[in-house]
């Protein structure tokens, strides 16, 4: 069974607040593994980190938690797909800690090992025994058969294997003759485009041992092309229009051209064979041949320059030349076989890569400064290597991080020179480039016009007002001489009450009750409407305002929120019950994973309700039937599906307890100004959610994706 990477975060309820340093820990370990002092995060765990296909951070500039809940219904995709949600504590610019300059991190969280040639990431040339190439092959020269991948290695690296269920319908090259050290080598490389089917071949190149090109043919994809990936493949729609050659034609020609003892050579050749839907038993993969530590791989472009002294994949060219890449891979294999592992190890490729990356980073950072500043710096300061940062570490390990956004990143030396200017353009670029990068930061923006302080104050007041209305219920009518204590007791069984007042402006008295949790108000509406309380048949309803017209829709969507999956709310608990008592009482419930007992954030006393999280949704549904009407130490329980089990509960509490600093007239004026631009803002948010949906769907399996609302202050 294939291992897949996954994230486990046990935070729940009050613990769902994390610091920026903790998020930095997660990103660092996800991207670097155990390199550069990276370790498993202290607050969560990534299983099978080496199987991660990539890390994608989507930043929604000018947006905060306030925007997420104000436009909760518009974030249709975001709230249904992302299963972990955390509140970030306020801090300095988090993004700067990723880019490098101005990072405010504890020493143990800072990327180490980039400031001197004695760094851990640079192997000493005098100690070749520690070189991964020597450890894998030994020092002596061997024939080519010693470097072909074994069947186990092919399986491990996702090569098409004969008899595998995943390779049903694949064409076998029928090159089954026994290989010898004199068997012929052939270089193979393909260019692919993205279609409705996945990756499909658009160009195939085959070169022989003398470097002669035997095949260099365009191929017509079977399915509709979604992305030509022109920047990398060099393929355009116009080029493929007259093409008649199909994949089956290429398969037939390759079978005819390859001798029965042929050895195919390529760089990450598994992806080429998968796209060709062909099985070949004997391969040399140069991405694995030039071995590195921690399962990392050198890029073909770097190896061609460092080993062969050749420049390939030049930026001036439109896309890669598959014949050039096939020839480079073939010559690298020939060099390795002819020179032997010891000579290759003496090249000290890790040191060469580090020097190249640091020089590149230094040049880029210098290029960002005005010329006068650079001259002044050179006069006043001694030369030194740039301060190491997270993205520098990625560069040194051979991973080129992708940064896309509206504005240049003045805190990093990794800026793009032709950054897009609109969210739509950023998305299009991301769809092309993110699948090809192991670490990406994609930055979308609302626009500066939406961060004016008066607009934010008005937005905050609208959210506070709506939350207050959702937490409030009106109940009645009651008799003139009704018992207020009985009413408070009955409604208190639905959840903790923040305030209870009697409404006397009506013909008969009503009560207005504001709960501390959404579930309490909803449970009161569902369980007490139409019942007899304090001797009167009453109606229970929420306030009727324009903002509350979509309340039922919002409640339903909160209930279906992925964060509340398998979570139920239980009310009616006695204050004398401890968490240990509840653990004991609920221990008989099947698949119970976590119990969260909310506390007053000021007094520390727990409330008369709790949340139960189950491993399976069905177990939560079964528990609901059991708990409703259940009596625990003389207290009758009520329960329902959770609406705000995670950080929303804490946020509601903070919103309701924060002081309003502005007078009513000022707020009224700001609310009017906000309503004029709110419709545009709602459209923008809906578009951003759609952008995230498209980008998310384009990601490979086993990609860690994080969406960040950095806030505006």
Automatic annotation (TrEMBL):
InterPro entries, per the entry: Nucleotide-bd_a/b_plait_sf, RBD_domain_sf, REX1-like_exo, REXO1/3/4-like, Ribonucl_H, RNaseH-like_sf, RNaseH_sf, RRM_dom
Gene Ontology CC: one annotated term: nucleus
Keyword Hydrolase carried by entry: yes
Cited Gene3D superfamilies: 3.30.70.330, Ribonuclease H-like superfamily/Ribonuclease H
Domain RRM: residue ranges: 471-545, 566-644
A UniProt-annotated Pfam family: RRM_1
PROSITE patterns, alphabetized: RRM
Keywords: Exonuclease, Hydrolase, Nuclease, RNA-binding
Domain of life (superkingdom): Eukaryota
Gene Ontology molecular-function annotations: exonuclease activity; RNA binding
PANTHER family associated with the record: RNA EXONUCLEASE 5 (PTHR12801:SF82), RNA EXONUCLEASE REXO1 / RECO3 FAMILY MEMBER-RELATED (PTHR12801)
Protein name: REXO5 exonuclease
């Amino acid at each position: 069974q294939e291992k897949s990477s996954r994230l486990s975060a046990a935070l729940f309820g009050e613990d769902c607040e994390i610091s920026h340093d903790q998020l930095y820990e997660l990103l660092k370990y996800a991207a670097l593994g155990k390199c550069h002092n990276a370790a498993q995060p202290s607050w969560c765990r990534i299983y099978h980190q080496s199987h991660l296909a990539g890390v994608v951070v989507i930043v929604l500039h000018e947006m905060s938690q306030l925007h997420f809940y104000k436009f909760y219904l518009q974030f249709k995709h975001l709230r249904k797909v992302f299963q972990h949600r955390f509140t970030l504590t306020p801090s300095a610019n988090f993004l700067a800690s990723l880019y490098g300059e101005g990072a405010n991190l504890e020493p143990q969280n800072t990327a180490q090992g980039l400031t001197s040639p004695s760094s851990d990431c640079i192997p000493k040339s005098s100690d070749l025994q520690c070189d991964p190439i020597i450890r894998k092959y030994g020092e002596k020269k061997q024939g080519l058969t010693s470097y072909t991948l074994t069947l186990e290695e092919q399986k491990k690296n996702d090569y098409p294997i004969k008899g595998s269920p995943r390779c049903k319908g694949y064409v076998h090259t029928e090159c089954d003759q026994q290989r010898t050290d004199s068997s012929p080598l052939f270089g193979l490389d393909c260019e692919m485009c993205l279609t409705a089917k996945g990756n499909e071949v658009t160009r195939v190149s085959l070169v022989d041992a003398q470097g002669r090109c035997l095949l260099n043919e365009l191929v017509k994809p079977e399915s509709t092309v979604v992305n030509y990936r022109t920047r990398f493949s060099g393929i355009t729609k116009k080029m493929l229009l007259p093409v008649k050659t199909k994949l089956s034609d290429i398969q037939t020609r390759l079978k005819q051209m390859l001798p029965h003892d042929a050895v195919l050579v390529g760089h990450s050749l598994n992806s080429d064979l998968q796209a060709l839907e062909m099985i070949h038993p004997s391969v040399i993969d140069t991405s694995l041949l030039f071995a590195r530590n921690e399962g990392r791989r050198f890029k073909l472009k770097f190896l061609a320059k460092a080993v062969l002294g050749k420049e390939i994949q030049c930026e001036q060219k439109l896309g890669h030349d598959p014949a050039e890449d096939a020839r480079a891979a073939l010559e690298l294999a020939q060099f390795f076989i002819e020179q032997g592992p010891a000579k290759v190890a003496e090249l000290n490729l890790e040191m060469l890569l580090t020097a190249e990356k640091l020089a590149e980073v230094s040049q880029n950072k210098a290029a960002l400064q005005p010329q006068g500043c650079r001259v002044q710096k050179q006069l006043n300061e001694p030369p030194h290597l740039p301060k190491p940062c997270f993205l520098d570490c990625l560069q040194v390990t051979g991973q080129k991080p992708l940064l896309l956004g509206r504005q240049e990143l003045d805190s990093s030396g990794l800026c793009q020179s032709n950054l897009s200017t609109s969210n739509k353009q950023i998305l299009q670029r991301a769809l092309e480039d993110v699948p090809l990068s192991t670490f990406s930061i994609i930055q979308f923006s609302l626009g500066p016009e939406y961060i004016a302080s008066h607009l934010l104050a008005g937005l905050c007041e609208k959210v506070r007002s709506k939350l207050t209305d959702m937490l409030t219920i009106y109940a009645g009518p009651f008799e003139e001489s009704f018992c207020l204590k009985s009413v408070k007791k009955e409604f208190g069984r639905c959840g903790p009450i923040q305030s209870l007042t009697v409404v006397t402006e009506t013909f008969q008295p009503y009560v207005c009750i504001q709960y501390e949790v959404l579930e309490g108000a909803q449970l009161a509406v569902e369980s007490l409407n139409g019942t007899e309380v304090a001797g009167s048949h009453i109606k229970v309803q929420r306030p009727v305002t324009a903002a509350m017209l979509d309340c039922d829709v919002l409640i339903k969507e909160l209930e279906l929120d992925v964060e509340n999956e398998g979570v139920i709310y239980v009310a009616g608990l006695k204050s004398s019950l401890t968490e240990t008592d509840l653990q004991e009482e609920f221990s008989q419930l099947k698949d119970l994973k976590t119990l969260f007992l909310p506390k007053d954030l000021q007094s520390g006393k727990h409330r008369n309700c709790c949340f139960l999280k189950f491993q399976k949704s069905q177990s939560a549904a079964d528990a609901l039937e059991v708990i409703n009407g259940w009596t625990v130490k003389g207290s009758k329980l009520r329960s329902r599906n959770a609406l705000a089990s995670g950080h929303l509960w804490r946020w509601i509490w903070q919103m309701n307890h924060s002081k309003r600093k502005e007078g009513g007239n000022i707020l009224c004026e700001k609310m009017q100004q906000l309503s004029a631009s709110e419709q545009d803002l709602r459209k923008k948010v809906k578009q951003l959610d759609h952008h995230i949906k498209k980008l998310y769907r384009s990601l490979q399996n086993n990609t860690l994706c994080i969406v960040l609302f950095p806030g505006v202050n």
